[in-house]
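Quick question, first post here. What does this chain look like in 3D?
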Amino acid sequence: MPTTVFTIANQKGGVGKTTTAVNLAAGLALRKVHTLLIDLDPQANATSSLGIEKQEGKSLYGALRGEDGALSLITPTKYEHLALIPSEEDLAAAEIELSQMENYLMKLRGVLAPIVASGGFRVIIIDCPPALGMLSMNSLAAADYLLITLQCEYMALEGLGQILRNVDRLKTAGINPALELGGIVMTMFDVRTSLSRQVVEEVKTHMPEKIFSSVVPRTVRLSEAPSFGKSIFEYDPSGPGAAAYKNLAGEVVSRFGL
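> Answer (accepted):
Ran it through. Tokens below.
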């Protein structure tokens, strides 16, 4: 089976992007889908969320500079079907250095090619920094599908338009003509507010075929889990956050034929 590459990108921080990357990856792994999570954010939140220490030289920084291969960076996690390429602070330098390289938007695609060719993973999920800089644009150039996390708040739709325009530019420029919007995950849904419901309804009206049915609630448990180095399935397996990400993983499996 071919490898499907997803990137979870958004120019805004604090919208549940890393939470979704980690828990969707863990949810797929629990379904025995061989998954590789790539932490492309120099803050390394996805790395620490899986209880893995940041280590110098273990991120994709060297590989993006052409110094070593990405296969050697793959790190096992506590989940049988989930591996990680961690991040560390050095990766921040890649934001500056990539722009000075030839074919700078295609570097990550080249780095991931041996992993894709190895056939070791059915799914690769890339967690991006909270900005549409060089690393995020590289992830869009390397992905088959973009998954957008959208917070259930007033300004969310404005950000959605911005990232979709960037996708169109990459396609039009021939950098990744096959890139598609794979879906929109609504996060931080607060059942007590009518605003949350209104935002979900608005997205459903504009993009009914793209929005996932599984809506991720705003819960303290989801916020707490990363500080214990655990996915929500370990930290609060019977709570609403785990239920939402379990359902989301099921939707992803069925939507993309995994």
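The two ends are 9 Å apart (CA to CA).
The chain has one domain: 4-255.
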